[in-house]
Amino acid sequence: MTDKLRAKLINAGRVLVDEGQGDYVWGHISVRLPNEPNRFLMKPGCIGIEEMTDDNIITVDIEGDKVSGDWPRHNEVFIHSEVLRARPDVNCVIHTHPEHAVAFSSLGRELQPMSNDGTMFSAGVPIFSETTDLIVNQERGKAVARTLGDKGALILRNHGIVTAGSTIEHAVFLAIKLEKACRIQMLAEQAGGPKLFVKEEELAAKRSRTNRGDSQGNAFSYLVRRSYLRCGCEVPQEYQATLENFDSTGYKGGKG
Ligand SMILES: [Zn+2]
Known about the structure:
Strand order of the largest sheet: 4-3-2-1-5-8-7-6
CATH topology: L-fuculose-1-phosphate Aldolase
Bound molecules: zinc ion
Shape: globular
Oligomer: single chain
CATH architecture: 3-Layer(aba) Sandwich
Number of domains: 1
């Protein structure tokens, strides 16, 4: 069980870097241990998020203290411990510094539903602006968790993003889509500013259609597959493009 979770965490790191979420050795991902809900696996400090291995992943408790592993703990661990403490529905937390989202956060603008990706976040993305410094203690971690509320994604102004998902696939999906939504909006801003938006009456339906659980899993599998194929490596069986691996639970036959 833990082996599978570790393997998925390692693959998540590869996918995140492929999708522009890497920032050298900064940025991190954690996943709650299913049988010990007050403990979580986390990427260690000092290495890139795509460099996680079975041997360097550390285990941390809900107070933010490392309980096992040789590698150092990120000093922003409190983003993870406090979001996981506040949100029993969340099992995976990601904090990264993707360039477009960070640039967008400096504009003081709200994300707008001008793309599929922007529409996904049209229920609102909280902005944490209590500090632009790193989140290095419990108090600040709790403040981030409070600002996140019941949402899946948050922007740390002039710093980065936090996503919180029920699964690794979910949190990765939110991180990638939030960065893409910011990138597309900035493209439109640079081209004179967006003039047309998703219709108000279409927002709710489109939001749920673009954020389905089966899409999250299928997108994650595709991204893992692409990562292995690009380096000429053999794709792990569970990520191969076979009908057995395809989650069609939310697919109703329409284009989506
Ligand atoms: Zn940070």
